[in-house]
């Protein structure tokens, strides 16, 4: 396994999983579950630095993705089981979890299947599954996501509104992510297709939302074109103990665009 700062591995039934950790080893670890077609190095390093100031933050690559071994997974349930195995090895009692986009689906499934492992959960740009009413994802989104590789313009379109402030912030964040040393290899074509299959087949959790008893912070970008904020609102209305926050002039990457405010809100939630 290639070396890099703060990297180690844990063994799971799906193979050896690569992990990066940041922050002090005290309190409840915060485990991050990434977006669609991402590795553990597709989080903005400036965001990670802020988030790990008071918490131990744990990132990992799923099997067959990035630096992790094994075969890539084609179901949300399997991804949740891997996250559970990681949590069992990095958390002394339980963990908090932050799921972004596809990672939000994995986090919700994780909370249903392994409720004893989680203390609190943060969902960003997440959907509880198919919603009959409300705004729809823009048609161009699927076309851009399906490209063999996404460039800076693609990421700006997908993650940031077309305002001067948002685009400027987006360019800076995208370049920080791209210029990191020791980056995990990109997601393969096979893993990409299996992630598409996983999300497409996922039944969602709306029919079981009342079973999610843990405190949940639901975060959305007001101009998110990938997962419209309405989806996050519906999710927040269905679970028993949820707080909903929407950030203005922001899209799918609201947590990077409003990093300081997000970390303040997340820290307040996690320490409540």
Summarize the structure.
Keywords: Hydrolase, Plasmid. The protein has 10 helices and 8 strands.
In which range does the helix fraction lie?
25-40%
Number of strands: 8
Largest sheet, spatial ordering of strands: 1-2-4-3-5-6-7-8
Q: Residue ranges: pLDDT <50 for 5 or more in a row?
A: none
Structural class: alpha/beta
Largest sheet descriptor: 8 strands, mixed
What is the approximate shape? globular
Strand content: 15-25%
Helix-strand sequence: EEEHEHEHEHHHHEHEHH
Q: Distance between the terminal alpha carbons, to the nearest Å?
A: 38 Å
Keywords: Hydrolase, Plasmid
Protein name: Alpha/beta hydrolase
GO molecular function: hydrolase activity
InterPro entries: AB_hydrolase, AB_hydrolase_1, AB_hydrolase_fold
Provide tags for this entry.
plasmid, AB_hydrolase_1, alpha/beta, 272 residues, hydrolase, AB_hydrolase, 10 helices
């Amino acid at each position: 396994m290639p070396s890099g700062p703060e990297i180690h591995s844990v063994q799971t039934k799906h193979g050896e999983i690569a992990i990066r950790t940041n922050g002090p080893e005290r309190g409840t670890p915060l485990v991050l579950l990434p977006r669609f077609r991402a590795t553990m190095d597709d989080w903005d390093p400036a965001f990670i630095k802020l988030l790990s100031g008071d918490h131990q933050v744990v990132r990992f690559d799923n099997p067959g993705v990035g630096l992790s071994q094994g075969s890539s997974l084609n179901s949300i349930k399997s991804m949740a089981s891997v996250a559970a195995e990681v949590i069992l090895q990095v958390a002394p009692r339980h963990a908090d979890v932050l799921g972004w986009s596809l990672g939000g689906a994995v986090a919700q499934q994780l909370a249903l299947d392994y409720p004893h492992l989680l203390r609190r959960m943060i969902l960003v740009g997440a959907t509880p599954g198919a919603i009959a009413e409300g705004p729809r994802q823009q048609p161009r989104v699927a076309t851009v996501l399906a490209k063999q590789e996404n460039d800076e313009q693609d990421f700006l379109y997908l993650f940031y509104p077309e305002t001067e402030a948002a685009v400027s912030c987006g360019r800076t964040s995208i370049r920080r992510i791209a210029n990191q040393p020791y980056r995990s290899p990109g997601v393969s074509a096979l893993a990409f297709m299996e992630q598409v299959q996983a999300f497409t087949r996922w039944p969602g959790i709306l029919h079981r939302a009342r079973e999610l008893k843990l405190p949940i912070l639901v975060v959305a970008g007001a101009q998110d074109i990938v997962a419209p904020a309405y989806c996050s609102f519906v999710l927040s209305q269905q679970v028993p103990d949820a707080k909903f926050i929407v950030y203005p002039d922001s899209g799918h990457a609201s947590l990077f665009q409003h990093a300081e405010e997000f970390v303040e809100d997340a820290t307040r939630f996690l320490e409540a």
